[in-house]
Task: structure prediction
Amino acid sequence: MTEKNKEYTPQNESEYQEKKEQERFDDMKDFAESMKEPAEEETAEQSENPEEAECAVEKDLLVVANEQIADLKDKYLRSVAEFDNYRKRTLKERAELILNGGEKTITALLPVLDDMERAMKNGEKTDDPQVLREGMELIYHKMMNVFKGLGVSVIETEDADFNTDVHEAVAMVPGMGDDKKGKVIDCLATGYKLNDKVIRHAKVAVGQ
Result:
């Protein structure tokens, strides 16, 4: 027979009561231990304050927002810098165009100027007007070829109907007959077009 199951007798009453007290104490201790672990787990789960959790979320969102702002600011500054460079480059190209826009034309005319200088020197060596005339005609045809290469064309006036888009009437000639009425009778100054744009109207006399 074990100590715990020892039969009750008047001689061992005090011992029996002591054992019972010890058993009740042990049972209560076991119960307390069994209740302690869930309570600790619940305390651990609830230790995080809802306000603290919300604050942590807000901090995370703030970090993301600041990163996005920094990225957008970087893109904006890059765009501003690129536009500023484009503006400066455009202004420089425009200034160069204004200053040197006639370079192509001048370069094309330089050979004609050379021919004129040669003609002047040759004119000093001869008194034959035919030689001078031929030299002038050569220079003129060369000049017209240069103009043609630059897109310049002559406005036709011979037997043409008067047209205010390309002609400027500087004189009216009466008594030319019905067939000459409204027609160009004479060209006093040749007109020119640059491509399809009139750069100088032909100054003409018109039949009335």
Q: What stands out?
A: The beta strands are 152-154, 167-173, 184-189, 192-194, 197-200, 202-207. Residues 1-6, 37-47 have pLDDT under 50 and may be disordered. The radius of gyration is 56 Å.
